[in-house]
Amino acid sequence: MIGSFGPVVFETSTKRIRTFDDFKRSGSARWATHELMGRKPLREFLGPGLEQISFTIRLDVSLGVNPAHELTVLRLMRDQGMAFPLILEGRPLIVGSSWVIESMNETWLRVDNRGRLLAVEVELTLSEYPQEVV
């Protein structure tokens, strides 16, 4: 993470490893149903729905990150409804859209004898936050 409110930067280097696993993406279409007397309902396509993604990240001191600090930043991003871009391969996942953290689940894997968090897995669910009005 950059600064205390910066983006989550997924990276692999000699100093730090911050990657994700189990990436899942889902989306849907929006439809209206118009009821008709004596006939089957009529369906009307309204447009695409919002995309949703989920993945798991491991935050581990042995991988060069501070799990407690990064959890604090992720919780803050979730609790304040911060929208942020998701960049993969140098491009936004969806042009014109940012993402918000809908939910996060933490599994604390290692804590030292002083109560410091050493390793955690975080399951994140993000929802699309369109920036453009078409």
Taking pLDDT < 50 over at least 5 consecutive residues as the criterion, the unreliable ranges are none
CATH architecture: Beta Barrel
Distance between the termini: 32 Å
Radius of gyration (Å):
19 Å
Number of beta-strand segments: 10
- How would you write the strand order of the largest sheet? 3-6-10-9
Task: Give me the number of helical elements.
Answer: 1
**Beta-strand share of residues:** over 45%
CATH topology: Elongation Factor Tu (Ef-tu), domain 3
CATH class: Mainly Beta
Largest sheet: 4 strands, antiparallel
What is the N-to-C succession of helices and strands?
Answer: EEEEEEHEEEE
Number of domains: 1
Q: What's the helical proportion of residues?
A: under 10%
Describe this protein with a few key phrases.
10% helix; mainly beta; Elongation Factor Tu (Ef-tu), domain 3; 10 strands; 134 residues; 1 helix
Task: Write a structural description.
The structure is a single chain. With about 130 residues, the chain is mostly beta strands. The chain has one domain: Elongation Factor Tu (Ef-tu), domain 3 (Beta Barrel), CATH 2.40.30. The protein is about 10% helix and about 50% strand. A 4-stranded antiparallel β-sheet has the order 3-6-10-9, with helices on one face. It has a two-stranded antiparallel sheet with strand order 1-2. Strands 4-5 form a two-stranded antiparallel ribbon. Strand 4 and strand 5 form a beta hairpin.
